[in-house]
Amino acid sequence: MMFFPRAWSSVGRAVRLAMMMGLNRIDGVGLDVKQVLHPPRDWTEGEERRRTFWMGYCVDRYASMGTGWPMAVDERDIKTNLPANEVNYDQSIEEVTYPLSAGITPESASNLSPLAGTVFMAHVFGRNLTHLHRPSENDNDHDLQGEFWKRHRSLDNTLLQTSLSLPPHLRLPAGVRDVNIVFINMSIHTSTICLHQAAIFKAEQKKLPQSLMEQSSTRCLLAATEIANIMRLISHLDSKGLRQASTDNAQMNPFIAFCLYVSARVFIHVLKKSPNEAEMRSSLEFLLAAMQEFRKINPLSESFLIQLGLDLEGTGMDFLLQNPGHTASSKSTMNRLETIVSATPAAAIRRHGTNTLHLADPCTEQV
Hints:
mainly alpha, 367 residues
């Protein structure tokens, strides 16, 4: 079955139900619209509604990233603040929260919860999609001063500012034991790769200066290396070392497979040109081993592995997918990851059928 098209259709219905119930305008003022739900009994119930909406919002962005199809939620219609801190939510301690428009700024960052950070990165993924798939009449993508390249630079500045403005509690390695924080940091680098791979594609298409492509290639490689390093960092933790907020069991964000996939594609691209790059080959082998292990609980990993198999065809590295644990280092990696995966509640879920998904390229305009 094709997971992303099915998810895109399902989440479209889900978020429309959420918006029908007004979950997208919980903190709006002066909105003279019909209310479907009774007012929340207390702050905790209101926060539960916020979280319900934002989870739908995130999955909406992820599904569109995998298909290239339009997103269901227009951010101009959102009047709901970002989720509160997990501890305060569990203990029903009311706190001040901020709208998405505040982003990660010095004023809001210190109180930004890991879940809110995840929402913000979904917003960045969505901006990248809009940048690529909703061109303006004045794009002039052949001109570095045109609207396309202005949007590119604006997004790049947002990613750099986000990376620099992350508060200490959302940084690694300090937050390595919280899977939301791990995903936030991976998402920053994944968004960077998507943005700059699109820039490379556009620069090649429009025959723009080689220096532009070289600069974006360097940014992609640095970001891919950071993703691999983060994955190495968490692979050294056992199942008790990872937690999702206040729970004891590990539950990796399913979309982490996308981050690993995007990173692996960068290494494949490098190795096609320089097959003797031992460090790049080691990183690719490590990521493939991780994805092979995650496929036990995450069908998306299998979808992405199929795509990587197509990328690896004819490179002489096809054997990495058939035998990802052929070296001592990758065997050790798979053993560590298996400890994490087997302890996750989702390990009890069994998937039926096979996946023959063909993904839209999330980092260019191609399908």
